[in-house]
Amino acid sequence: MDAAAQEATSQGAGITVVKGARLIDGLGGNVLRDAVVLLSGKRITRVGSVSEVAIPAGAKVIDAGQCTLMPGLIDGHVHVAAYNVVSFNNYRIAMYEVSPQLQSFYTLFHAQLCFEMGFTTLRDMGRNNAWANFATELCAVRDAINSGIVPGPRLLVSGRIMTTGSHHDMNLPRAAYRHPGYTADGPWGVRTAAREHIRTGVDIIKVCVTGGASADEEGDTRNLTQEELDAAVDEAHGFHKPVAAHCWTALSHRMCVQAGVDTIEHMVFTDDESTRIVRESGTPVSPTLLHRTDRAIEVRQRMGSPLNVLKKMREIQPRCYESFKRMHQAGVKIFMGTDIQYDPEMGSNSAELELYVALGMSSMEAIMSATRSAAQAMGIDADTGTLEPGKFADLIAVDGDPLHDIKILQDRDRIRLVMKEGKPYVDKLAAAPLYVLHPQPGERKMFE
Ligand SMILES: [Zn+2]
Asked: Rounded to the nearest whole angstrom, what is the distance from the C-alpha of residue 427 to the centroid of ligand 1?
C-alpha cells in the first residue's frame, strides 16, 4: 500500500458505516432513501444518503441491504422484574417461592428479551415483593449492564413510594406480613422514602396516585393526598430525579399536573376537562394498552389472577381504548409504554404500536412515540431517540418498512441489527450472526 492509500485508510479507522434502503430518523420528517449512518465510538457523526455522504476508506461497513434503519426503540413503562411464574404457574405463589437473588437473574433475562427485539432503552417502573422494594436488585442489573459484565439494554429504574393500602402496597396479598417501614405515609414519610430510594441509586421515583388492578383494591380510589404527592415530587426534584405517577382517574391527572409530575402512567378513566389540563401542561402520558388486551387478560387468567382482577380488566378495556383516542385527538403528548410484565409476553413490546395504529395514530406517530417522544418524556433526548449527529448510535435495522406495516416490528426474524452506543449486540447480517439470546418472544412459556 502506498502512502496515499495508507493515509486514506487511516481516515476511516474507527469509523463504522451502516447502510440501509431507507431511514426513519425519529424526527417525523421524510424517509431518507439509500441511507448511510456514520458513527465513531459511541456516537453518530453523519446521516445522509449514499449520494451525499462519502464513505471513508478503511471504515467498517455494515450493509443492511433492504432494511429500514431507525432509532433503537424505547419502552417507557415495563416491569422486567416480573415474578418468575414458570415454575409455580401463579404469581402470588411465585412471589414467595422465588428469592430476590434468583429474581434478579430473571430481571436481566427479561430485559435481554426486549433488547433482542430492538428495544435499546427500557424504563422500568419497579417491583415490590414480600421482602421489600426491589429497587436494589434493579439497580444492580442496570449497573451490571452498564459495566459491560452482561449484555442488555439501557435501563432506567424506579424506586416505588408505597403509601399504606396503595396500589403498590396491594401488589402483595392483603394478609401478607409487612415488616415495619414497608409503607410510608404523610409528607415527611414519602420524602424519606424518596430519599432512601435515591440513596439506593434509582433513576426515577414512582408514585401511585390511584388504585389499580391488584386483587384487593379498587382502581378509581385515591391513594395519596395532594400534600403527599406535592412532597414526593418536590423531594425527587430536589435531587434532580423525575417522578412517574400511576394514575387511573381524571382526578389523579389534575393532581399530577398541580404537583408537576414528569410523566403520567396509564390511560384508564379520563374526561375532556382533565385531558385538556394534561395537554396544556405538556405532561407526557404513557398509554400501556398492551396490558389491557384480550391476550393479556387470558395470560393473567392462566397465571392465577383472582376472578375480581379479571373482571376489572375486562371492564376497563374499552375505557382505556376510549381514553387513548380522546387523549390522542386532543393532542396530549403520548410516549410508548406497555406495562409488560407476566403478560402478554416479554419481548412483545412492539405490539403496543399496532394498537396505537388501530386506534387512530399514523405509523410514523406510533414510531415516534417509541423513539423521540419516549426519549423526551424520559429526559434522555440529548443522547438517544433520534438518528442525528451527536446522538448515541442506538440503531436498529428492520427487514421491511414499518411505516407500511407496523406489525413487522413484532417479528424477531426481521430485527436484523440491534446496536447500542455504537456496538452491535444483535447482527443477523453478518456471516457469523450475533445474538444476545436465542429464544423467540413467547417461546419461553410462563405456562405449559
Ligand atoms: Zn406498570
From this structure: 31
* Model pLDDT for residues 214-231, shown as the tens digit of each residue: 888 899 999 999 999 999
Distance between Cα 109 and ligand 1 center (Å): 18
Ligand 1 mean position, distance from CA 38 (Å): 37
pTM above 0.85, yes or no: yes
Outline where 303-440 has alpha helix (H).
307-330, 351-358, 363-369, 372-378
Write out the H or E segment, with its range, that includes residue 67.
strand 67-71
Cell of 54: 462519502
Condensed to tens digits (0 to 9), the pLDDT of residues 119-143 reads 999 999 999 887 778 999 999 999 9
| Burial zone of 48 (CB within 10 Å; 0-12 exposed, 13-18 middle, 19+ buried) | middle
Place of cell 496515499: 4
* Ligand 1: centre distance to CA 77 (Å): 6
Distance 141 CA to ligand 1 centre (A): 19
Distance, CA 199 to ligand 1 centroid (Å)?
23
Give the list of residues 6+ apart from residue 356 with CB closer than 8 angstroms, or none: 287, 289, 324, 328, 334, 336, 365, 366, 369
Spell out the domains of the chain, with CATH numbers in brackets. 3-71+386-427 (2.30.40.10), 73-378 (3.20.20.140)
E strand residue ranges, 232-348: 243-246, 263-265, 285-286
How many angstroms separate the alpha carbon of residue 125 from the centre of ligand 1? 6
Contact 202, 135 (CB under 8 A): yes
Q: Is the pLDDT of residue 234 over 80?
A: yes
